[in-house]
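Hello,

Our lab assistant flagged a job as stuck in the queue for most of the afternoon. It eventually completed. Since we weren't sure the result was trustworthy after the delay, we are filing this so someone can double-check. Below is the sequence as submitted and the structure that was eventually returned. Let us know if re-running is recommended.
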Amino acid sequence: MTDRAVTPDPQPAGRAALLAAARAELAQVGVGGLSLRAVARRAGVSHAAPKYHFSHRAGLLSALAAEGFAALARGVDAVVAAPGPPIQRLTAAGRAYLRYARDEPELFDLMYRPELLSAGDPVLLAAKRRAFQGLARVVREIRSDLRTDVDADTVVLLAWATVHGIAVLLRDQALEAIGAAEDAAHSEVLADALVKAFGHLAAQPADGA
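-- returned structure --
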């Protein structure tokens, strides 16, 4: 039985329906099993519709990844914007990052698979930048208190690399090899430990003080 030939819906609702279907497919079969035809079938549209809206598989995956970065940004921004000391909000940002990686494992994995995405996609690039603005902002707030001559951008990169590394280790269940717990509570402990390390730097007297 062949798919009925219809003109794909050019309206935004058609694109949104395909993205919702792709998100469901991703969660069910993983990125390796996701196909444009399966997404179209789940969305109840012509098999030509995904190509109409996204041109190719990489275009669809890039749109999904952009949605993932946007959701991550919302989660981090919400806690960074809350009242409280910067070090407390940095803890909350780390927890939000780890929580997102835990709750959306397939999408989180896709977001960091550049070989599957359209590298120059402007929407994806903008979403990536936006996702790190909240974390960067709160790290820069505590940067002046850190007893280090490392520039602010490097401190931001260090904070992101550390929390991302923890997220990947938890996702891949790599901590089991050293007997560490891998549940949600341990994610909180790791996020807190990261921030305590930054706090320790801030508490150290400056050289020559």
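-- support follow-up --
The delay was a queue issue, not a problem with the job. The result is valid. The chain has nine helices and no strands. The CA atoms of residues 105 and 171 lie 7 Å apart.
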